[in-house]
Amino acid sequence: MAIDKFVSRHIGPREDDIKEMLKVIGVQSLDELIDQTVPANIRLKKPLNLSNGLTEREYFRKILKIAQKNKVFNTYIGMGWYDTITPSVILRNILENPVWYTSYTPYQAEISQGRLEALLNFQTMVCEMTAMPLANSSLLDEGTAAAEAMHMMYSLRSRAQEKAGANVCFVDELIWPQTLDVLITRAEPLGIELKVGNFKDAVATENWFGAIVQYPNSNGEIEDYAGFTKAVQEKGCKVAVATDLLALALLTPPGEWGADIVFGSSQRFGVSMGYGGPIAAFFATRDEYKRDLPGRIIGVSKDVNGKHALRLALQTREQHIKRDKATSNICTAQALLATMAGMYAIYHGPEGIKAIAERVYNIARLLAREITKLGYAQVNKKHFDTIRIDLPRHVKREDIEWLSVDLEMNFRYFENGQVGLSIDETTNIEDINWILEVFAKAANKPVPIIHSIADDRSVDADIKRQSKFLKQEVFSKYRSETEMARYIKRLEKKDISLVHSMISLGSCTMKLNAATEMLPLSWIEFNGIHPYVPKNQAMGYHELMEELRRDLAEITGFEDVSLQPNSGAAGEYAGLMVIREYHKSRGDGHRNVALIPSSAHGTNPASAAMAGMKVVVVPCDERGNIDIEALKAKAEEYKNDLACFMVTYPSTHGVFESSITEMCDIIHQNGGQVYMDGANMNAQVGLTNPRRIGADICHLNLHKTFAIPHGGGGPGVGPICVAKHLVEFLPAHSVMNNGHVGIHAVASAPWGSASVLTITYGYIKMLGADGLTEATKIAILNANYIAARLKDNYGVLYTGENGRVGHEMILECRHLKTAANISETDISKRLMDYGFHAPTLSFPVHGTLMVEPTESESKEELDRFVDTMNAIFDEIKEVETGAADAVDNVLMNAPHTAEMLTANEWTHAYSREKAAYPLEWLRENKFWVPVGRVDNAWGDRNLFCTCEPLESYK
Ligand SMILES: Cc1ncc(COP(=O)(O)O)c(C=O)c1O
Questions:
Q1: Which of the 8 DSSP states describes residue 92?
Q2: What is the pLDDT of residue 622?
Q3: Beta strands per DSSP E along 547-664
Q4: What are phi and psi of 475, to 5 degrees?
Q5: 677 CB under 6 A from ligand 1?
Q6: Are the C-beta atoms of 852 and 808 separated by less than 8 Å?
Q7: 195-206 confidence digits (pLDDT tens)
Q8: How far apart are CA 653 and CA 675, in angstroms?
Q9: Whose CA is nearest to atom 8 of ligand 1?
Q10: Rounded Cα gap, residues 706 and 726, in angstroms
């Protein structure tokens, strides 16, 4: 083994293992397996044109040089991004900790109690700061949260409003320009009309359904919206408020003046700017709208033993499950960043947050006073952190600009020449004096010297928050670093992540997130940069993004790439909007039918609905393949209106359908475009590509195929890659020139979640062309090895023409339900007793488990998983034959907690040992599940989504 090659660290099986695995599968060589799996007509003829893989050491040198090309200035631009201090205890124990960053979305509640608690804390923090009763556990960013608010208000229209066609959403002109940009994108396909104006002059009319205002607004002004809100609501409309969590420590929160929805970014709660992201948006609303709330809600419930336990609440209301009836397509959100923001609130507590807010306010106030003394005028009357400054006639904006750049500072410049300054928690006396130096020198005045910040003042009484916040115990318990680190560790111990065992979630590609790929994330050269700094301060980022776009274009066979979308579903939406725009540009704007196979992930039809398309479902045949005759018939039936076909390849059934090129031809012949969902790209890289199969556009999930970790449900990055004819429609941005000129923005930040692109960049650079292709082959090998070893007991539902699976497979479990009344859920829960996370449950076929091992798992780990699945199969057989009780058995009672197993009383029909140590290796390495099986129905009936004292849940 070449010890310095990264590929040998990324890939699990060793050479000898591979030989043995091939024997079990029944092929002579890896190439033979690949030939049997990937249809010849779509194989690439040439290797990828990418550089050779770097060693980890070489990559470090490269990325360090790139980092040094970014210049970290003090930035006072504001506009939704602020410098912040990530407490080191959070940085080290969460952001840099693979238990937190490699775990999956907490669908399997029993082994996710730690991150569920962290997200419940986030929700509670949001409810407390906004004074709203219900919050979700994060959205993608502020702009898309605004769009979600608009959609939610639209779907909450009364019957009469619907009947009357009320379609106007009022938007105050002083919201962030990027928020408006995203609203424009998202309004148009649904027929929503945006009415942009000054809220003071606006009067709700019959055709309004909602209004959106920002508090404090884009000028930094704190307006009183109470009267406006009341007047709008009296007309039967809803009001959504964009806000700043830190400001709400001082200002009367929107929940106290009647808002229906409150949303914004939680970035300044300890999550760095990262050149735009990732950051977690928050979204809070009234209790009565809980079923319409986009995203996930963490709720409190109990386990079978009556013990307090958390889980995702009201899961069936998760919008994308409703497919084309959905009002949101959000799936992956920003869980890791929400966790960090929640922890920031816990570490600082109410008094700390208030002190930070007061300090920020007082610095802004001091600057306003001193700058005014120099002859400037403050434009905004009531401020929090931001002051807008009008320059005297003799001072030029350019003077301010070059003087500030000379002192390595960035200010905001308004179109009318005024200057904005937004203060953050990092601003200190030295910074204040530098800012004043700029304004004094530009005005030709002596430079004042400030020695202290008088932080004794608060905002005016009429806008001042009177209510207490962050009252729950968790926000006052962990002030010392020791206590905080132990709390984080306590939560972490309750969760299964990739550092515990393989997570074989089909369609999720839980591969290695290598430490070398992750390390640069913590460097200030990447995380300390505001997305609106002049480009010459972010040259490292631009070099990296240019190269990454080129590499992703090469991998997909496409012409260009937009890095803007923040998740797979966001990529789907962006891609469909690009297709829509393409049709419009050809005078085919009426083309609005999206053909989508029945096996598609729920986000596909949900995204199509968001993009204003009509979803037509194409059935699959008994082999799991898309029914090509049906596809042809539907394509012809809708040929005058056909916009696109959305296809996942290899299919969500885990199969490389050989008719894929024919399918693409059918669509093109009928005037449609082919959109490929890239969730399964891990089976393609280096062997085939979306362009080769005939697609026009795809999204990639960098958080699956390209090594960005799942973070317990985000961050995600869903770039879209397009053929030449679609390049001109890629999303632009209203504030920064991001190199594209097409549709309006689909995310707040010009380049999306730029900071985590470093991970994908490292992955591609270290694997290189050969390593990437090798990774794909081994992913297919690992899946076929598991399939070969489990097919006799479980049965593999679908295979390709030669009997092979792609990089994942669906294990049949329905016969076990019939024979022994043991469901796929029971198997999932029993897997926890063996220390494993369940595979994907009941998607895309009900009553099955979908397994995707990825290339990163070693043969030893695959064997451990297979042995476990076979041991579970034997346990099911015992139930079937009557050797075990039909109800009181290890499967239906799983998972078994230490508390259950050590109780004085043991009344079960099987032994404690059988429950706890069914296989020998468990004695060495046992994961103790913290709670028994969670009662979902109870939790949904008794909905609690904040961390109140235990008594309140009774
Ligand atoms: C096939 C498929 N498409 C789309 C998505 C949505 O991607 P995301 O969760 O990043 O929004 C998923 C997510 O698991 C998926 O498996």
A1: I
A2: 87
A3: 560-562, 593-597, 614-618, 642-648
A4: -85, 5
A5: yes
A6: yes
A7: 999 999 999 999
A8: 18
A9: 568
A10: 24
DSSP designation for 95 = I
pTM, two decimal places: 0.97
In 3D, which of 378, 446, 430, 442 has the Cα closest to residue 404? 442
User: CA-to-CA distance for 474 and 675, rounded, in angstroms?
Assistant: 46
601 Cα: distance to centroid of ligand 1 (angstroms): 7
603 lines ligand 1 (CB under 6 A): yes
Report the relative pairing of strands 720-722 and 697-700 from DSSP bridges: antiparallel
Using CA atoms, how far residue 302 sits from 284, 397, 874, 886, 942, in Å, is 24, 61, 30, 24, 10
Bridge partners, residue 210, by sequence? 169, 238
CA of 330 to the centre of ligand 1 (A): 9
By CB atoms closer than 10 A (0-12, 13-18, 19+), residue 2 is exposed
Q: Is 567 in the pocket of ligand 1 (CB under 6 A)?
A: yes
End-to-end CA distance of the chain: 59
- Arithmetic mean of pLDDT, 856-871: 98
Whether residue 491 contacts residue 118, with contact meaning beta carbons closer than 8 Å, is answered with yes
**What CA–CA distance (Å, rounded) separates 271 from 285?**
23
Q: Which residue of 507, 646, 703, 807 sits with most ligand 1 atoms within 8 Å of its CB, as the best mutation to test the pocket? A: 507
Instruction: Give the mutation target among 701, 808, 840, 851 for probing the ligand 1 site: most ligand atoms within 8 A of CB.
Output: 701
E runs forming strands in 601-710: 614-618, 642-648, 673-678, 697-700
State residue 941's pLDDT score. Answer: 82
Average pLDDT over residues 512-526: 98
Distance in angstroms (rounded) separating the CA atoms of residues 377 and 369: 9
Q: What is the largest CA-CA distance in the chain?
A: 94
Nearest to 714 by CA among 78, 103, 177: 103
Predicted confidence at residue 316, as pLDDT, reads 61
Give, for ligand 1, the residue of 567, 601, 845 to mutate: max count of ligand atoms closer than 8 Å to Cβ.
Answer: 601
Gap from CA of 788 to ligand 1 centroid (Å): 27
Q: Report d(CA 80, CA 179) in Å as an integer.
A: 10
Atom of ligand 1 nearest to the CA of 680: 1
Where do we find the tokens 């969460």? 94
What are the two backbone dihedrals, phi and then psi, of residue 920, each rounded to the nearest 5 degrees? -60, -45
Q: In what order do the strands lie in the sheet with 419-422?
A: 377-378, 386-390, 419-422, 412-413
| Distance set, CA 649 to CA 36, 193, 678, 684, 701 (Å) | 16, 36, 7, 8, 13
Is the CB of residue 914 less than 8 Å from the CB of residue 890? yes
Q: Does residue 32 have a pLDDT over 80?
A: yes
Q: Can you tell me which atom of ligand 1 is nearest the CA of 701? A: 10
Q: Which amino acid is at 567?
A: S
Is any atom of ligand 1 closer than 6 Å to the C-beta of 102?
Answer: no
Torsions phi, psi for 316 (to 5 deg):
-70, -10
State the pairing for strand pair 74-75/409-410: parallel
- Decide: 847 and 935 in contact? Cβ < 8 Å: no
Residue 486 has a CB neighbour count (10 Å cut-off) of 13
Q: How far apart are CA 929 and CA 932, in angstroms?
A: 7
